[in-house]
């Protein structure tokens, strides 16, 4: 794997991991009743996820322009990490909504 692919792979893993951690913090804050802080954490998570997605978009554009991408376990892992983080982020939003409803009753 060349240096650019390593940068892309670890960029996806790092930013997706940070986004997932922020989404988890959002759930934790919502559980404590801090809904405004939870929503801020979700927004931070989304902003970080955009950075991870930009790396993925770079890969897609390279392939679309005819540049072959060698598959590696690390690249597959990065894509898996991105998708699970995106799913977790969506679920975190649902949890925040749920905690908000529970706290207003």
TrEMBL record:
The keyword Transferase applies. Keywords: Phosphotransferase system, Sugar transport, Transferase, Transport. InterPro entries: PTS_IIA_lac/cel, PTS_IIA_lac/cel_sf. The modification Phosphohistidine is found at residue 77. Coiled coil: none annotated. PROSITE patterns: PTS_EIIA_TYPE_3 (PS51095). Pfam families: PTS_IIA. Gene3D superfamilies: Phosphotransferase system, lactose/cellobiose-type IIA subunit. This is Lichenan-specific phosphotransferase enzyme IIA component. It comes from Terrisporobacter mayombei. The gene is licA.
């Amino acid at each position: 794997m060349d240096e650019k692919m390593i940068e892309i792979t670890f960029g996806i893993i790092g930013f997706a991991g940070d986004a997932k951690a922020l989404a988890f913090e959002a759930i934790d804050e919502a559980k404590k009743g801090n809904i405004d802080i939870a929503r801020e954490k979700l927004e931070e998570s989304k902003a970080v996820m955009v950075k991870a997605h930009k790396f993925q978009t770079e890969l897609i554009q390279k392939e679309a322009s005819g540049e072959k991408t060698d598959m590696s376990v690390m690249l597959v892992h990065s894509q898996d990490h991105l998708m699970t983080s995106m799913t977790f982020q969506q679920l975190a939003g649902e949890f925040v909504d749920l905690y908000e409803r529970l706290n207003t009753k």
